[in-house]
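Sat 14:20. Reprocessing the chain from the morning session after the first attempt stalled halfway. Input below, unchanged.
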Amino acid sequence: MAAPSCAFTSGIPNPPTTSPSCAVPIGGSNSTLLDTCCNGHINPINTYSAPGADDDCYQYCTTDAVNDVQGCLTQKFEAYDKNSPAFQCFNVAPVKAAESKGGRIKGAGWILRVAVGLGVVGAVVGMV
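Finished this time. Tokens:
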């Protein structure tokens, strides 16, 4: 059996799924990092080939926590090569940061208003 001929000259092609997923080229520590970040014991990791190729040169995992996997891969791969990311995530829904931060700010604002309100009431009662 001949060794796969994988020429990684362009970006990582889309894996054969419409589900949120992350993919890496096969080789080096890429497979281990994908397995680690994607919880390979829970989420299946599959191999695939680029369009028009016969060799499976890429691995991908599908996950409901693709943003977490993407963050983990970014952190892990940063230690190896900061200039050229060796992974790509697909079908990622954008995180609505403004809403999540807004909830925290609104919660903090509510607490602040209560504290100030109690302070004003305490000052008025103390003056009487």
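The first strand starts at residue 21 and ends at 25.
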